[in-house]
C-alpha cells in the first residue's frame, strides 16, 4: 500500500508518496509560519490533496517535532510550533478530501523508523537510532516495534544524564548526553579549545576567520580531514561520547545496530572509529554477546517523510 | 492454563504450580550443587515431575541467573553455575515425563514479569523493574512486552554508567549504576562513613559490634528507622541514585511505573521519598507528561517462580 | 608606618591612607577609563599626591585586577584594563611627588591580606580566602606569608577543577570550581531550576518578575530568608561546593581559617552551615587535626586599599 | 654544617651523615619492630650515636611516616607505627650522647625537601613534589619554604578530590586523587582491563602468569616498553591524571617545577609525555606565565635521609 508522509517543520513542510519499498514516488513542499497553526493545517492538507489526486494512497503520516499523544492523534507540546494539546490529525483530516487514516508521529521516531525499515537497520529487530545534530535526538526499536513510551515521550536519548554536575542543558538539567554528543557540543568544545590551547588551535581559528565564536562544525570536520591534530581530537571526543553513551543504552536494551544520523556523519571514520572503540570498551557483558554494529544512517532529510508514511500504514 | 515455574539458584531450586491469577498452588524445593549441571537438570526435572503428577499444567518456565539465548532454550553463560552454552530446556525436557513446552528465562526478567502481571505493575503497559539487592538487576517491559534484546542480554540496568571515572564494578568498568544503587553500595558507603566521620557514625558502629567491616545493610535501615541522622542520609543517598538513574531510563523509555524490589525495600519511605524527589528533579520533559510512579515490589522471593511460569504459557 | 593603598578598578580608583591598625584615615576616589592606561596612571598619582600632601606615608601599594609580575612592579595581563606587560609602579612613580616605594599587588591578594592582617584571619598563620562574587577569586597565606607563586599567578582558586567534564568556564576549561562556587553559578542554577522544576520555583519566578533570565542572586537569598525551600536548597548547594572544594585545598595546605568574602556572604548561615558541614564531611585526616574554621570576611569593598597599603610597607 | 638524617620505616631505619652538598658521607641501618616504639627510639639513638662517633654533626633530623606536630617534636599519629601523640624528639634525645638539636619531619616532606635542595627542584623557589607509589604523597615548597600547614597536615595531595562520586579511598572519601594517580590505581585499572577487554589484555595476562589478580605495576611498564597498546594506554591514563591534578595545584600555587618521584617513574617518557600534555591542556592562565616543568625525581630511597638532615640544620 502506498502512503503519504509529511514532515512538518517550523517554516516549511515536505510531503511525499512512499511505496512499499520506502521510495518516494512524488513530493511537494510548502512554506509555513510556525505561529499560524491553522495555516499549517491548511498547507499540510493542501499538500496531501495534491499528492492524493495523482496517487492512490491508503494512509497519511504526519511527522511533527514535539511530544505526540500516545494515541497518535495530537501534539501535546512542540518547542518550535505553537501547538499545545493540539488535535492535529483531526484538524488536518477535516481538510483532506481522501478518506484515509491520518496518524501523527514524532519526527525523530519517524526518521528512525525509516532507517529501521529501509536503511541501516533494515536487517535488525532491535535498533537504537541517534540523530546527532544541533541536539541529540533518537528513536528506539525493540523487537520490531517502535518504542513510544506510556505518554509518547520515549527516545529522548539526549536527556539521559552522562555526567553528574556536567554541562547545563536547555532542559534545565546538568550533564545531559546531548551536551556531550551533538554538533553543538562539538562547536562549543572547539571554541573553548581556541581559548585554552591557542597554539594548537591555529588552524581552527584560521578557518573561523580569526573569530573563535564563528567556528562551525563543518570547519572542524574540514580541519580534521586535512590532518589537524586538535580537530581530529575534537571529533574523536565526540565519537567517544557517542560510543560510551550507547554502551549504557546497550546495557538496557541490547540492540543489534546503532545508527548514527545527522550532520556530523560527514566526518565518517574520524567519528565512527572512536565511537566503535569507546562502545566496545564500555560495553557490559562483552564476550557473552556480539557487539552491536555502529553504522551511519542511509537516509538523509527525507527520512521523516518515509518513516511517517510507513508508520501510518502499519 | 496452569504452569510450573522453577527458580534455579546456585545451591537450591524452588518450583511451583502457578494459576492464571499468579497464585502458587503447590511448591517444592530441592538442594543442588552449582558445579554439577547434570544434577541440576535432574533436580529440576524431579521437581517438575512431582508437581505435574498432581496438577495439570500446560507449560514449564525455568528462571536462570545468566544470559539466556534469544530463543529461550539455553543458558549461554551464568556467573554462579557452570553453564556455558548449555541447552537447558532440552536437557531438562529429556527427563520430564509430561509433554509440555519448556522455556528458559533470565531470573530477573521472570521476577520483573511477575510484578508486571500480578504485582505493582499490573495496571501498566510500560514498566521498569529495579531489583536492588547485592547488585542492581532489573527487567524492562515496553508496550506490554518483556524486553529481551537481540541477544538476550537486555535489562542489565546495573551496568549503565552513571559516573564517568566512578567506582569500579566487578564487570571491569567504572561508574556502573550498580555501584551507587545497590545494597552493596549502601554498605560500602556506611562503612566508609565510619572512617571519614567517626563522630556521626557512633550508632552505626555500635550496631556493627564495633567493627566497621561488619556493618550490614539491615543495620543501617534499623538505625535510620530509629532516627539516626547519618543512616537516614545514607538511605536518602541510595534513594537519590535510584531516582536519578531512573530518570535517565525514563528519558529513553517513558515508563508508567518503576518498581523497586530487593531487600532494601524494607527501608520503605526512607528510601522511596528521596527516590521520588530525585526522579522528579531529574526527569526531562517534566510538565509534558505525568511522572512515572515509583513503587515497592509486591512479590518477594517467589516472583521468579510466578514470572517464569507465566512467561512459559504466553 | 602609614601607607597609601590604591584599588584600581576598570572605571574608578579608590585610594586611602591606612594606619598600623588597618584603619583608613582618609580616602579619595577618581573615575577612570579602562582603555586609557596613561589616564589611569595620572589618576592614581593624583590621588596619591592628594593624600600624601596631608599625611606622612612610607609606602604606596597598588591593587590591580590582573597578573602581577613576581617583582611586584608590573601588570603582565589584565582582563578588564588594557595593561600588557605594563610597568605600572614605574609609570605611577614618575608622577608621584613623594619619594616612597611603590608596589603592585593582585587585588584579590590585597583583599585577602587585609583579612589576614586585620580581619577574620588576624589570629591565623595559614589562611585560605575565597571571594565568592561573579567569579571565584582568592588569596592564600602560608606560614604568615602571602603566596604569589613563581610567576605571580598563584591563588587562581576558581580554576581548580572540581568536576571532570563539568561546566565550561570562560577560561576554556571544564569543571572549574568557579562554575560551582560563585554568584554566577548560583544564578545559573536558580534560572535552570525555573525550567526544570517550575512548580517549586514559583517564588523565585515571582521575584524575577516572571522572567527566569532576570533572576538575580540577591533574590535567591531573599527567597531563602523567607523560607522558600528551593532557594534554601540552591544556597545550600553553593555552600556545599564551597566546603567540598575547600577540603581539597585543606588537604594541600592545612589552613587554620577559611574566609568567605564577596556578595553571597549576605546569605549568612544559609550558606555557612552547609559549607561547614560539607567541609567536615570531605576533610581528610579528620581526627588528626582540628577542623579549620570557615568564617565570613570582616572587610568589605575597602579591603583592597587596606591590604595593598599593608603589603607595600612590609 | 654536617647533619644526620634518619628515615624511620615500619620495619627498618636508615641513617646517614649528610654534607652541605646533600651527599651521604656514611650510613647505617637497623631493623625494628613497628609495635615496639621504645625499641625504635633505641635503634634510632644507636644509629645516631654510631654515626656521631666518627663525624662532627650539628643537627639530627628524623623522617617519620605520620602526622608531625607543628613544632616538629612529636608524631601525632602514624598509620604503620604505634605512635600516638608521641614525643619522638624528646625520647630519642634522651638516648643520644651528642648535644645537638633533634627535629622530626614528615617523611614525604623530607624527601621532597631533598629534591628541592639537591635534586630536580634545586633551581626553583616554588615546587610541587608528587611521590607516586602505592599511594600518592607529596611535598610543597612555596617561596623557598616547606609548607607544613597549621597543624602539620599539609601536602596530603593524594586526598584532594578529583572526581565527585569517584573511587573510594582508604580515608573514607570518594574520588581522592590517589585513587587515580598512584601505582595502586595503575594496577587496579590494569586488572580491570583484563576483565573488560580480554582480547586487548592478552599480553598483560601473560605477564601476570594468567592470573589477573597477580598483575603488578612493573609488568605494565614492561609491556608498555615492549609496545603493548593497552599497557601504553594505562600508563598514559596515569600520566594524564598526574598532569590534570597538577594543573589544579598550579592554579592554586603556581609552582615552577613539579617533581615526580616513586616507582612509576621507571616508565619514563611513557608517563611523562602524557602528564605534560595533560598539564598544558588543563593549566589555567596559559599564555600569562610559563608552564611549570614536570621532571622525574633525581633521588631515590635515600631522599628521606638527605631531606631530614638538611631540614634539621636549617
Automatic annotation (TrEMBL), chains A, B, C, D:
Record flagged with keyword Plastid: no
Keyword terms, alphabetized: ATP-binding, Kinase, Nucleotide-binding, Transferase
Entry-linked Gene3D superfamilies: 3.30.420.40
Single GO BP term: glycolytic process
SUPFAM superfamilies with a match to the protein in the record: Actin-like ATPase domain
The keyword Nucleotide-binding is annotated on this UniProt entry: yes
PANTHER family: GLUCOKINASE, ROK (REPRESSOR, ORF, KINASE) FAMILY
Species for this entry: Sediminihabitans luteus
Name the record gives this protein: Glucokinase
Domain of life: Bacteria
GO terms for cellular component: cytoplasm
Pfam family, one: ROK
PROSITE patterns listed in its UniProt record: ROK (PS01125)
Family: Belongs to the ROK (NagC/XylR) family.
Enzyme class: transferase
GO molecular function: ATP binding; glucokinase activity
Enzyme Commission number(s) of this protein: 2.7.1.2
